[in-house]
From TrEMBL:
Keyword set, alphabetical order: NAD, Oxidoreductase
Annotated InterPro entries: Ald_DH/histidinol_DH, Ald_DH_C, Ald_DH_CS_CYS, Ald_DH_CS_GLU, Ald_DH_N, Aldehyde_DH_dom, Aldehyde_DH_NAD(P)
Entries under PROSITE patterns matching the protein: ALDEHYDE_DEHYDR_CYS (PS00070), ALDEHYDE_DEHYDR_GLU (PS00687)
Protein name (record): Aldehyde dehydrogenase
Top-rank taxon, per record: Bacteria
A GO BP entry: aldehyde metabolic process
Active site (catalytic residues): 230, 264
Family: Belongs to the aldehyde dehydrogenase family.
Keyword Metal-binding: no
Domain Aldehyde dehydrogenase intervals: 28-449
Originating species: Brachybacterium ginsengisoli
GO CC annotations, alphabetized: cytoplasm
Entry GO MF terms: aldehyde dehydrogenase (NAD+) activity
Disordered, as annotated region: 1-20
Length: 480
């Protein structure tokens, strides 16, 4: 992108309003007033808004599917599987369990406060900001919103301008089907996001890359605002000897090349012993052809890069001398098409290993075995996900205990992110906080201890000075 060019202009969109400040300030003020009035606190009101979101999602599915196809080349089936269906399941799961998740939890207070009772209540945070990415723009916008609504909050939603058609479709859905006292949408690019980050929110939920995540964290720190940061990283795969290589190859190829590799938890690179790599590579190439055909550019199930800037970056990571399938030959910048590409003989110092790939390029790297694979993972930043394919339970357990990652998937790729009851989040450079299901409620609420102690009998006299005689002896016994 040329210096001074906004992401909106780069995608052929009109530049933002000269001064959106009044509109954004009005939205934030209106939502804060709504929260302060108690609009979002009743459980039945939350359930009603979640039901409205589900109805809206069903009603707007054709519009959303068209937008996803325009922005990312997603097929109708992939959109249903990885975007709209995931959110529908999240809504249903949350509505089913919300009452129990919000039920006060009884606390044990110990003998010093007796007689007394205590409980932990889930308290809404207030007015929240959700900044969503372009790669799964429906899923990663609406799933956090489900948690925000269920937690009893109001929310400003800022979709990504990099997926402009989907941003517009999401704005239409939310403005048409949800109560503006609960949710407002701000479309735009960097100026709008910057202005939003200058405002005070009660939680900022950001999904995207680490560079912008740091900007969000610094802005939040100015107001001591808590954040959930869903970032990314180089999610590794280790394939052990003795696995069913044909089955493993299919699962890796699907996880890697879904959405043209533009998935935060996509397998970034694959490690195995030289012997296993030699045996696995033909299975990987066959799996690519089985899933996407001999001409993936003609496949209705293979996506496109979101824009030419991302196309150019990923294409620059490809070394055609190491390509066993795909490569720069056949890549089409005008159509944003990058073929599914597998590279062998890759070294750890190659450019493709210097950053998160976030595209349809899979490097294969030789390691001595589990020991070196674990050491390589530990030497890098903590990934969002790690994948292990091994017939040996002890090897799986070693990766579980000796490596750190946002999640660990044993024997499959990608699918765990769609499980509504499974917390999803990163650790270290791959993010902070988690959501989905009950974890989303925990992210968007404050766990407030409430303690009640009667005035009679007045046992607290024991803790008041002077600490002499029997009072001192009793206190020492109680504090053991």
């Amino acid at each position: 992108m040329a210096p001074g060019t906004s992401p909106l202009t780069a995608h052929g969109l009109p530049t933002p309003d000269p001064d959106p400040r009044d509109r954004i300030l009005a939205d934030v003020s209106a939502l804060r007033a709504s929260f302060d009035a108690g609009t979002t606190r009743p459980l039945e009101a939350r359930l009603a808004q979640l039901e409205a979101l589900g109805r809206g999602l069903r009603a707007e599915e054709p519009r959303l599917a068209r937008a996803l196809a325009e922005d990312l080349g997603k097929s109708r089936t992939e959109s249903a599987l990885t975007e709209i269906g995931v959110v529908s399941q999240e809504i249903a799961h949350t509505r089913k369990h919300l009452r129990s998740w919000l039920r006060p939890e009884r606390l044990s207070l110990g003998p010093l406060l007796a007689p007394a009772s205590g409980e932990l209540r889930r308290e809404p945070l207030g007015t929240t900001l959700i900044i969503s990415p372009w790669n799964y723009p429906v899923n990663l916008t609406l799933a956090p919103l489900v948690a925000a609504i269920a937690g009893g909050n109001t929310a400003i939603v800022k979709p990504s301008e990099v997926a402009p058609a989907t941003s517009a479709a999401l704005a239409h859905l939310l403005r048409t089907h949800l109560d503006p006292d609960w949710v407002r949408v701000v479309e735009g690019a960097v100026p709008e996001t910057t202005l939003l980050l200058e405002q005070r929110f009660d939680l900022i939920f950001y999904t995207g890359n680490g560079a912008v995540g740091r900007i969000v964290a610094r802005a939040a720190a100015d107001h001591l605002t808590p954040t959930v940061l869903e970032l990314g990283g180089k999610s590794p795969v280790f394939v052990d000897e003795g696995t069913d290589l044909a089955a493993v190859a299919r699962r890796i190829v699907w996880g890697k090349f879904t959405n043209a590799g533009q998935t935060c938890i996509a397998p970034d690179h694959l490690m195995a012993t030289p012997r296993t790599l030699e045996q696995l590579t033909p299975h990987l190439t066959r799996a690519v052809r089985a899933l996407y055909g001999a001409r993936p550019e003609r496949s209705l199930d293979y996506g496109r890069m979101v824009g030419t800037r991302h196309f150019d970056r990923v294409l620059g990571l490809v070394d055609d001398e190491k390509v066993v399938i795909g490569g720069t030959v056949g890549a089409d910048r005008a159509r944003r098409y990058l073929p599914p590409t597998i590279m062998t003989g890759v070294d750890w110092g190659d450019p493709v290993m210097g950053e998160e790939i976030f595209g349809p390029v899979l490097p294969l790297l030789a390691v001595d075995g589990p020991d070196e694979a674990i050491a390589r993972i530990r030497a890098g930043e903590k990934p969002l996900t790690a994948y292990v394919f091994s017939p040996r339970r002890e090897v799986e357990e070693r990766f579980a205990t000796e490596t750190s990652s946002g999640s660990l998937a044993l024997g499959f790729t990608l699918a765990h992110v769609g499980a509504p009851g499974m917390p999803f989040g990163g650790v270290g450079e791959s993010g902070t906080g988690a959501y989905h299901g009950q974890a989303g409620i925990e992210a968007f609420t404050h766990a407030k201890p409430v303690v009640r102690k009667p005035l009679r009998p007045d046992t607290l006299k024991l803790v008041l000075p002077p600490y002499t005689g029997i009072r001192r002896r009793v206190l020492r016994r109680l504090m053991r």
